[in-house]
Amino acid sequence: AAAQATTPQTVELVRLSDLNAPPRQFGRLNAASIEEMTAYLGGLRTGPVRVGPAAALRKAKQVLDAQGGDVARVVHLLSDFRAADWTDEADAIKEAAAELTAAGVKVHLIDVAHPYRTDDKRPPLHHDNVGIVDLRPARLTV
Q1: What is the reported pTM?
Q2: Dihedrals phi, psi of 132, to nearest 5 degrees
């Protein structure tokens, strides 16, 4: 959507695993900033910290409130939409989203579950990962 916009677009990235860090600013979108963003995102790895969508939306509001200005504001929340994230905090998510929309912010929820969901299969398919849960020698070793 940003690539097709007729007005200048800027991007600030907030990592939920580090909500206290300042947003990573990429400035005005152009070929160089997109390349910089791609390199930055490519170097990220998943971590053990789980942050719910309500905290993400509250942080987005905090960042946008600090900016001020007369610009169109859009929040893209990327999630794998785990049931636990969206059912345990349903009321808090609704409240945080309502605050953003009341402030004139457009909120886009982007499903990044992989393998991707399809229209006929709503839950994403599982990965065929293998986990080792026990390891024993075939015969006694001394």
Answers
A1: 0.73
A2: -90, 120
